[in-house]
Amino acid sequence: MSSTEKSIFERIIAREIPADIVHETDTIIAFRDIAPAAPVHILVVPKTPRYRDVAELAAGDPALLADVVATAHLLANELSDGHFRLVFNTGANAGQTVFHVHAHVLAGGLTEGSLAH
Ligand code: 5GP
User: Fold this and answer.
1) Is any ligand 1 atom within 6 A of the Cβ of residue 8?
2) Ligand 1 pocket, residue 94 CB under 6 Å
3) Which of 15, 16, 75, 80 has a CB 3.0–4.6 Å from the CB of 11, allowing a cystine?
């Protein structure tokens, strides 16, 4: 993908493609994963396309990373029992397919098998 091409998440943020949005602020959007790996599977996505992965986000804007974690906690409480697993696939060899930082929030009936997402 060229750097000028929008990622799938930028297109969701711009409402160019639909998503089941569960939470939105000026800086963060959260929506259900199209291929859920747990009964509750939400993607929490900073709106800025500046950071490709969580390592870049942690280095560049730790307050925004803290907001991502707080949003995960909020949504786990709202949509499930407050218990959740937070996954940041970082790098293609770790399973990352969308290079716009995002957290997977997995909740509800988690088993060992869903650890790998
Ligand atoms: P990654 O593999 O980069 O950690 O996570 C990307 C996630 O985005 C995958 O779990 C995938 O199912 C999800 N995904 C990809 N395309 C779409 C889409 O168009 N809509 C939604 N809601 N999720 C998507």
Assistant:
1) yes
2) no
3) 16
